[in-house]
Amino acid sequence: MKPKSKTRNNPPATAKHERAGHAYRQAGRKRIVVMGGGTGTYTALTGLKKYPVHLTAIVSMADNGGSTKILREEFGILPPGSVRPAIVALSNAEQALSDLFNFRFENGTGLNGHNFGNLFLTALTKQLGSFEKAIEAAGNVLHIKGEVIPSTLQDCHLFAELENGTVIEGETNIDVPRHNGNLKIRTIWTKPNVKANPKALRAIKEADLIVIGPGDLYSSILPNILVKGMKEALKTSNAKKIYICNIMTKFGETTGFDSGDFVSTIEKYLDKGVLDYVLLNTRKPLASRITKYEKEKAAFVELHEEDFRGSPFKVIKKDVLRKQGLIRHDPEKLAQALLSLL
Amino acid sequence: MKPKSKTRNNPPATAKHERAGHAYRQAGRKRIVVMGGGTGTYTALTGLKKYPVHLTAIVSMADNGGSTKILREEFGILPPGSVRPAIVALSNAEQALSDLFNFRFENGTGLNGHNFGNLFLTALTKQLGSFEKAIEAAGNVLHIKGEVIPSTLQDCHLFAELENGTVIEGETNIDVPRHNGNLKIRTIWTKPNVKANPKALRAIKEADLIVIGPGDLYSSILPNILVKGMKEALKTSNAKKIYICNIMTKFGETTGFDSGDFVSTIEKYLDKGVLDYVLLNTRKPLASRITKYEKEKAAFVELHEEDFRGSPFKVIKKDVLRKQGLIRHDPEKLAQALLSLL
Q1: Contact at CB, B74 and A119, closer than 8 angstroms
Q2: Do A128 and B96 lie within an 8 Å CB cutoff?
Q3: Which residues contact A322 (CB under 8 A, 6 or more apart)?
């Protein structure tokens, strides 16, 4: 698939044009759903955005750290933390404007630590009366290509039980472990047991390809699958479903995981047989890049072929590593791998 | 002059289109500069916006109250307080978006009292490195018609000496008097004695009509005229210059003023002979409307013909009163009165 002309250089379409042109331009386009939360979802979306496909991001509503925590508590809104990077990823607005969405106030007794995008979504929610309308309005301002859909519209929090029986409350305490990070997570759940957003279910039903991951397994990916109705929707959708395994482990979440552990955890929540593909990175970064991760106790995710013998899904093994810098998926390599499945 | 078709119903132009089309569409249009700050400037701009004229708002940089005070102190930016309403007035964006700019956070330990528009301008200033660029970027997002120009780009604060010799520091302490509001203001100045923004001077030079007011005399209007170079620019500009006298007095600023007092104060700072016109409202509101202002000790500004005998300017006497609600200028009546001078 050839990338479409770079939208950054085109005059950005207006909100109205975008909407009016949407149906026409998108007709016949393959529909890809990316499910997740933070940086991994951002990476997948930015890679895919360059191609003529219809994109939907389904994002976690379990975030409760930092700026998001304050805004949830003080304004009673759904968490903007995972919506923000997805909107930025899909933005075709001027760079300055999408950068602004990620801007973090670093002074100010009251504003310190707030992302501008979070404040934007909060103000819009209060003004328009709904988080969904706020996302739509923010999407219009940032001229996004595609849609960002919260996995649920109900307020919930994430809980995890460790292998020693300790229960951890809140996504942020799983994401940034305050517990012994060497202990494995036995199980996670949300409280209350919230229902999936009907729009998310529809997107899954209509999708040609559903991309789960990459991203933090317990704190970004699985909270989407936990919502009532999501697993069933994934099972019954005719879309091809692929899980993108992470390249690095995360201390306190996936300590010591190899790719087999990642996949079997996903299958535990998704049921065996739902995934059609699993994408595993084959390129090991230079030791010098990996050592930078030692202080955060993260390690390269090893691939053991024997873990996948007799799997009901097809294993795609590919170099999807970013060439330099942080050890993450390369957006373009990832997009190519995904588009080849359409 | 006929109003142009209502822009709200047109598809909003993109930032790029707006800029590209600007020169073409604006060619040959009369250039009107509105000088001031808060609500009065907002009123004048919203009235004029409906007509095919080129609009420039020159706004005060002396504000230091509330949200603006915090953002000035904690982020070291120029005051967004007077920029915000001018941008909203000139906005052709969807109503929800321009409303959002005025949205005020009303909960939140840290966010309480901040206008969203102020946070927007603060984040943009930090990100783009300049307040001017931030105003331009915000203007693009809100698809403004025309320009908003700070009267100075230098940080300053407003001071007032009362008739008893007391010195009041800060615009907000003049605007909302903590002193004996019955005492007259003897003189005002800024510290430091800042220079006019060259862009403001250019707008004044190129203008066909310069509208001073309506608005708070000492805390919104005069701070613009105080900046070095502004008075001279106003003197030498070939534009017609009109002062719009307020309809109500303001306690602590213009207590007991009649229209002669307003005009003579303007002339004190602008020099006699600079104004070509003074616009005075002739319609007295019903007593029931005026009594609502008693608690804030504001009174109707009376017109005494003898005050203007032998004046170097032409006095325009017109009903420019809003029909109901707050006693303010009617945007449409004001626009008509101004456009008749072109």
Answers
A1: no
A2: yes
A3: A328, A329, A330
Nearest-CA distance from B246 to chain A in Å?
A: 32
CB contact under 8 A, A11 and B12: no
Entry pTM: 0.88
Tell me what pLDDT residue B28 has: 84
Please list, residue by residue across B292-306, b when 16 or more beta carbons sit within 10 angstroms of its beta carbon and e when fewer do: ebeeeebbbbebeee
- The dihedral formed by the CA atoms of A213, A215, A218 and A219, expressed in degrees to the nearest 10: -120
What confidence tens digit (pLDDT) does each residue in B165-185 have?
Answer: 999 999 999 988 788 899 999
Query: Which residue numbers of A have CB closer than 8 Å to B's CBs?
Result: 11-17, 70-71, 74-75, 94, 96-97, 99-100, 103, 105, 107-112, 114, 116, 119-120, 122-124, 126-128, 137, 140-141
**Which residues from A are below 8 Å from B128, CB to CB?**
96
**pLDDT tens across the length of chain B (342 residues):** 666 654 444 434 444 444 444 444 456 899 999 999 999 999 999 999 999 999 999 999 999 999 999 999 999 999 999 999 999 999 999 888 889 999 999 877 889 999 999 999 999 999 999 999 999 999 999 999 999 999 999 999 999 999 999 999 999 999 887 888 999 999 999 999 999 999 999 999 999 999 999 999 999 999 999 999 999 999 999 999 999 999 999 999 999 999 999 999 999 999 899 999 999 999 999 999 999 999 999 999 999 999 999 999 999 999 999 999 999 999 999 999 999 999
Q: Which stretch of DSSP H or E encloses residue A260?
A: helix A259-270
Which of the residues A72, A100, A121 would you substitute to probe the B interface, choosing the one with the greatest number of B C-beta atoms within 10 Å?
A100
Nearest alpha-carbon partner for B219 in B155, B162, B175, B270: B175
Question: Is it true that domain B28-154+194-339 has CATH number 3.40.109.10?
Answer: no
How large is the C-alpha radius of gyration of chain A?
19
- Chain A closest-CA separation from residue B123 CA (Å): 7
Best mutation target among B9, B14, B68, B71 (most A Cβ atoms within 10 Å) is B14
ipTM, two decimals: 0.85
Return the domain boundaries, chain A: 28-154+194-339
Q: How near does any CA of chain A get to the CA of B63, in Å?
A: 18
Amino acid sitting at position A257? F
Chain A residue nearest residue B101, CA to CA: A123
